[in-house]
Amino acid sequence: xxxxxxxxxxxYQDLWTCDQKHGLKNxxxxxxxxxxxxxxxxxxxxxxxxxxxNKSVAAKKLRASQIHHLTEKDYDNIANTKYKLFxxxxxxxARNPKSINWSKYDIVISINFAVPIQIRKKYSNLVxxxxxxxxxxxIGVNNWDYFISHNCPSSPALDKTIIDMPYTLLSPNYLxxxxxxxxxxxxxxxxxxxxxxxxxxxxxxxxxxxxFKKLKIPLKFHDGNTKTHLENLTNSKYFIxxxxxxxxxxxxxxxxxxxxxxxxxxxxxxxKVNLPSFCYYSDLKELLEKINxxxxxxxxxxxxxxxxxxxxxxxxxxxxxxxxQAIVIKKNKKPQKSSLKNILLKKLSYLYYNLVIRVKTHKxxxxxxxxxxxx
Length: 375
Fold this sequence. Notes:
With about 375 residues, the chain is an alpha/beta fold. It has helices at about 25-30, 40, 55-65, 70-80, 90-95, 115-120, 175-180, 210-215, 225-235, 250-255, 285-295, 300-330, 340-355, and strands at about 5-10, 45-50, 105-110, 125-130, 135-140, 145-150, 160-165, 190, 220, 240, 260-265, 280, 370. The strands form three sheets. It has a six-stranded parallel beta sheet. It has a five-stranded parallel beta sheet with strand order 9-8-10-11-12. Strands 5-13 form a two-stranded parallel sheet.
């Protein structure tokens, strides 16, 4: 089995804010926003570190490209705020990157440019993977082997520079096994971008169709609180995406792990989450019919839950196979010396970016790409 590490900067505006030694449940409960790739620690037995904030120009550029409204002062505040679970700030437990024995790892996944280039150059035999916070990639970088796509892999095939993995990664039963408090599940939990109870959320408030209320089952909504979110996932029967913007599918992975049957329209998810055909609906009438069908037939609901979990299991297997391929490729890769060709390619990458964002094709989504960021 290969050895994997996941790292984030102390200033990162998301994910866990305590030490891994406190256990995965506490780690998840300490998150600033999303559940995230806790499956890397649970399934792949990765080590997790918070690192001192990378103050390099390149790291600052990448942070600014992912979240536009946060300033470096905001990031300093995030790093130095004491969070209530253990009354410590990320900065207090953050490690100097030089203090970590990187040689014990085969793959390091860094959220944004958390690991300085000097470290990546020194341990150049490792597979260095960058997981950008919001899934936008610089079109040119140095000393990174792969980016994480934020999409689910549909096969074990490994792209030349991309590993397919969703931002939220969970084993099929993780949330039910660790956070369920009640064996009886009931009601509908609405996806956060559909309808929610969060104040000042950037969403046009939707009115709940009366037809949902006529089902006479509990209706639940995201209130922005992680504890309530986990409770809703593990005690609801159905997780419904109804209106609102399209999503990558991270919440669908959470819902599967929480034991919910997922429902969404055909165009609601662009992150390549593959669900059973029963989970898709064309209109409100069909959605209500499917809910009523499952309310009347619990065996049918159980079969869909098994199918969903099996599909999530296949996603995890494909990620594992991509990791293994990346390690083999890196071991067999010959060191490249700086050449005129590489210098020209670096300079041409800026031209390439300008072409990419101007030329519309069926293959490239221009919104995924950023100008080159070299260190």
